[in-house]
Write a structure and sequence with these properties.
By secondary structure, this protein is of the alpha/beta class. Among the domains are: about 45-145, Beta Barrel (OB fold (Dihydrolipoamide Acetyltransferase, E2P)), CATH 2.40.50.140; about 250-430, 3-Layer(aba) Sandwich (Rossmann fold), CATH 3.40.50; about 440-600, 3-Layer(aba) Sandwich (Rossmann fold), CATH 3.40.50. The protein is built from 25 helices and 22 strands. The strands form four sheets. Strands 2, 3, 4, 5, 6, 7 and 8 form a seven-stranded mixed β-sheet that branches. A seven-stranded parallel β-sheet has the order 12-13-11-14-15-10-16, sandwiched between helices. α12 (about 295-310) crosses α13 (about 320-335). The longest helix is centred in the first third of the chain and has 31 residues, at about 210-240. The chain is globular, with a radius of gyration of 31 Å.
């Protein structure tokens, strides 16, 4: 039976039902899945040296003959295998730990290729656990060593070597199994190799140059898949119609004069961009990307005011009840001079009036309303990644004319990500902070100074002249087997030690919504001095008298999340402080320490997000599922030039043959 891409992986020699089950945890069920399961890193072992050269360099690949192999057992129950090897001029000793079977594997006079490095311990130099492979006499017949070989993600029962051996059975068939799907003209214009050749070379590269060509082709495929999605969204958006909102400049000037502060230049630019969109008869689709406390709500209020002035209604959707209430209070105050009808719609207050010229602020409870305003013409969604795609589309498709759509985020997103994730969306950015804002003093507190930090907080809170409040944040709700502190345990400890004489409350995500809301309301009313919480307070808390936030086990949070937490203080005219305290073993993880110290010296959320993105990748920083960020195996999210090129190709394909676009998109490498 001839193998096809759809053939089960059990079609290959060495794969039984048990191994097949192991492969499923890697999302590999058939031959096609295996071929598209590519290495995440490579090692070039094509330069095979002699023992003398290996000793001089201290690392690399060398060919040697086995002299002898002996097992050594210590009285502590440990064992290692001493292997002596030689070539025509030199000898070398190798050490393998806990692999006693090697004394039988390595037969005297057998030739092997080894790959490793010298480890210096005191005055002695040793080679521990080098990779090895029996030399077949022909480098082209080697599975791993002597070649450029890749390392694959592994799972229980499946190793990289095992994956390479299975793929070796398919090596000559990969071009046949993976038919080309891109038009020949595009391959020629973009100087791309055939997909079959690319997949063959990504597993078994003939050279570094051929590996690079393979990566270029597969990376282009990944970016083209995103580009097609973006261009289709743009085309779909262009077919929709909306009702134009006429801008009343006199009203806008009155609004600006009613504010107790002057808007920043960035805010003014964003308002202009939004106004330019909503005067059109096709729907606005814009992202307002601004740092914590940069003043996005007042920008949104300008658009809301113009919408309602034209006789239409607007909805602002927030992900949590706390944030919805905050927006309701803020917008009610901002729009008060203009007698705007503002209504709140949350789970405990779902009723909406019959009025058709109003602003509704609420949570997803709005989605369950049967009688939404008939003249709805503006939808604003705050932190849209916290809503499902269907939830958002439900509001956008409730009537013949599509409402104008504005989404806001306080999670700064670097330009490279906005291009990929929001490619079909216009982006307005607020980087400039209000001039009256006092910078938050952010300090790294080494673990040995932890107690001193809490003593300082206690003294500060007890100072009756200031009436300030504090947050103390933990990553876990309950203790687990790690040394990470939990909010429940620390609440008990801190209230019985450092915070004996102040009022302390506990908050975490497992509490009922009504209980969480009551605690936050009471905290805002100053019934508590200190709130010990998890990151549940990350978004939507605006308490001007909360001036201190202490974050323990801080390296457990992403920098973007730390920045969000830092934004819970500094909301008023008092000096605010953010203290980050690491875990006890932080010194063992220099990168984590480096990240925390970077955070303490950078106040811009955009700087912090870009740094975190480069250090940890988008999946860790933003969460792939929540944010819609694609999973790339090869393509670089920051490669805007490649995305631009891919979008040009996608647009061309869309114009030339829209009917085959979905077929191409489904076949693209991913």
């Amino acid at each position: 039976m001839r193998i096809s891409a759809r053939s089960k992986i059990t079609s290959l020699n060495g794969v039984g039902e048990k191994v097949q089950s192991n492969f499923k945890s890697l999302d590999i069920s058939n031959i096609g899945d295996l071929i598209r399961f590519i290495p995440f890193k490579y090692r070039d072992t094509t330069d095979i040296s002699d023992i003398k050269t290996f000793k001089e360099i201290g690392e690399g690949t060398f060919l040697a003959q086995i002299v002898n192999a002996k097992n050594v057992f210590t009285r502590y129950g440990k064992n290692f295998t001493k292997v002596q090897v030689k070539d025509s001029e030199n000898k070398l000793n190798l050490t393998f730990f806990s692999q006693p079977y090697l004394s039988k594997t390595f037969q005297p006079k057998g030739w092997y290729i080894f790959d490793g490095k010298t480890t210096t311990k005191g005055k002695s130099k040793n080679i521990y656990n080098p990779k090895y492979e029996k030399y077949s006499g022909d480098i082209s017949m080697q599975i791993t060593l002597g070649k450029i070989f890749g390392t694959y993600h592994e799972t229980k029962g499946v190793t990289s070597r095992q994956i390479r051996k299975l793929l070796l059975q398919l090596k000559d068939d990969i071009p046949r199994l993976c038919k080309e799907y891109l038009p020949k003209t595009i391959l020629e214009e973009e100087k791309l190799i055939n997909i079959g050749e690319a997949l063959a070379q990504i597993h078994f590269p003939d050279s570094t140059q051929s590996l690079q060509l393979a990566r270029e082709r597969l990376g282009f495929d990944e970016m083209l898949r995103i580009a097609i999605k973006i261009e289709k969204q743009i085309e779909e958006q262009s077919r929709k119609t909306s009702l134009a909102i006429k801008i009343n400049k006199t009203l806008q000037n009155k609004f600006l004069k009613s504010l107790p502060y002057k808007l920043t230049n960035d805010q003014q630019v964003c308002i202009t961009e939004i106004f330019d969109d909503i005067v059109q008869t096709h729907p606005m689709n814009r992202l307002l990307n601004g740092d914590v406390g940069s003043g996005k709500t007042v920008v949104a209020a300008s658009a809301i005011l113009q919408t309602l002035n034209c006789g239409y209604s607007a909805i602002l959707l927030a992900p949590t009840t706390v944030l919805a209430k905050q927006h309701f209070e803020t917008l009610t105050q901002l729009l008060k001079p203009f007698k705007i009808d503002v209504e709140l719609c949350i789970s405990t207050k779902k009723t909406i009036s019959d009025s058709n010229n109003k602003l509704i602020v609420g949570t997803h409870a709005i989605l369950f309303q049967k009688d939404l305003p008939k003249n709805l013409n503006l939808i604003i969604v705050d932190e849209q990644h916290r809503f499902g795609v269907r939830q958002r589309e439900q509001l956008l498709n409730i009537k013949e004319n599509t409402p104008h759509y504005l989404t806001m985020t306080a999670t700064p997103i670097p330009r490279s990500l906005t291009e990929v994730v929001f490619g079909s969306t216009q982006v307005s950015t607020i980087k400039e902070m209000p001039k009256n804002r006092i910078d938050i003093k952010t300090k790294y507190v080494p673990i040995k100074k932890r107690v001193d930090c809490f003593k300082w907080v206690d003294t500060k809170i007890k100072d009756k002249s200031s009436s300030e409040q504090a947050f103390v944040i933990y990553p876990l709700i309950e203790d687990n087997d790690t040394n990470i502190r939990s909010v429940k345990t620390q609440y008990e400890k801190l209230t019985n030690s450092h915070f004996k004489d102040v009022k302390v409350a506990l908050l975490h995500g497992k509490m009922k919504d009504k209980d969480k809301n009551k605690i936050l309301t009471d905290f805002k009313k100053k019934k508590f001095d200190i709130l010990i919480s998890t990151s549940v307070i990350e978004v939507g808390i605006d308490i001007p008298t909360a001036t201190i936030i202490v974050i323990e086990n801080a390296e457990r949070f992403g920098l973007a999340q730390l920045h969000q937490l830092r934004g819970r203080v500094g909301r008023g005219d008092l000096q605010s402080y953010c203290f980050v305290i690491p875990s006890e073993n932080i010194d063992e993880r220099e990168k984590a320490l480096e990240r925390l110290k970077y955070f303490t010296t950078h106040k811009s959320g955009f700087d912090v997000a870009q740094y975190d993105l480069s250090q940890r990748g988008p999946g860790e920083v933003y969460g792939v599922v929540q944010s819609g960020i694609p999973r790339f195996k090869i393509a670089d999210l920051s490669d805007i030039k490649l995305l631009t090129k891919a979008r040009q190709v996608a647009r061309k394909l869309l114009l030339e043959d829209n009917s085959t676009l979905d077929k191409i998109s489904n076949k693209l490498f991913k």
